[in-house]
């Protein structure tokens, strides 16, 4: 069950475990998800942003259509601040920087995404190195997505030669085997409450 960190009449903030879908897939075996587990208690819950199945961390749901519209607008206008933490293969050279490869769905290989400089949508990720482990050859990195493309953080890190440890889609078999799960966690979420205007700030401890 996702851990409920906050709820009021308009929204929920939960911590999603790794390995759980944000919302159901098309096949019956993909029915289990954050939203299907929460619906019995919160029948008007609506997913306003998603985390990939292997990603853990903070996720927000609206309660009712009016709040869903307000929160979706806040995401579109980049008024919701999100930060992630990952452990990636290799040692990132620069202490901080940005990755701006355009992304688009790789239709023959769905759900994979790909870099496409002709038809891809602009995608921007800011990063800051938190720790380098020379002995074990990995880097812990803070990630701030300016855009919110599907698989953006995973694709951008892989594209610069530093795939996330345990990534089942974009890591090589060797890098996949280096971790028991994908080491990507949504650790920070902040935004203005659409109804009250209060500043809402949530942080989640990184479990790896």
In short:
Strand 9 (125-133) and strand 10 form a beta hairpin.
Structural class: alpha+beta
The CATH superfamily name of the largest domain is Pseudouridine synthase
The averaged pLDDT comes out at 95
Rg to the nearest angstrom?
17 Å
Provide a count of the helices. Answer: 4
CATH architecture of the largest domain: 2-Layer Sandwich
What portion of residues belong to β-strands?
A: 25-35%
Shape: globular
Q: Looking at CATH, which topology of the largest domain would you report? A: Pseudouridine synthase
| Uncertain regions spanning at least 5 consecutive residues | none
* Helix residue percentage: 10-25%
Q: What's the end-to-end separation, in Å?
A: 19 Å
Q: Return the domain count.
A: 2
Number-wise, the strands total 12
Q: Return the CATH class of the largest domain.
A: Alpha Beta
Order of SSEs, N→C?
A: EEHEEHEEEEEEHHEE
The biggest beta sheet reads: 10 strands, mixed
